[in-house]
Amino acid sequence: MELPGGRATGLRVPSVKEGISINPGSRIVTCAYDGGGSIEIAVMPLDVRELLEALPQADTPSP
């Protein structure tokens, strides 16, 4: 699946409520778009690395 202009901005575990409808062992990757808007993608733990390698990471400010 193409995510043009998308960048990974966060990674988290699903909440208890989310874990009822998706696999509770999955991880949620938040992706933001250049023009605004975002999407959250549920990914199995073994596939997270592959997704993050295919999707550019958001720039993080230096401390």
Secondary structure layout:
Layout: E1 6-12, H1 16-21, E2 27-33, E3 38-43, H2 45-54
Going by helix content, strand content and strand pairing, the class is alpha+beta
Give the SSE string: EHEEH
Tally of DSSP helical segments? 2
Distance between the termini: 34 Å
Helix content: 25-40%
Instruction: Enumerate the strands of the largest sheet in spatial order, edge to edge or round the barrel.
Output: 1-2-3
- Averaging pLDDT over every residue, what do you get? 84
Question: Could you characterize the architecture of this molecule?
Answer:
- Strands 1-2-3 form a 3-stranded antiparallel sheet.
- It is built from 2 helices and 3 strands.
- The radius of gyration is 12 Å and the shape is globular.
- Helices cover 25% and strands 32% of the residues.
- With 63 residues, the chain is α+β, with helices and mostly antiparallel strands.
What descriptors fit this protein?
single chain; alpha+beta; 3-stranded antiparallel sheet; 3 strands
How would you sum up this structure in a few lines?
With 63 residues, the protein is α+β, with helices and mostly antiparallel strands.
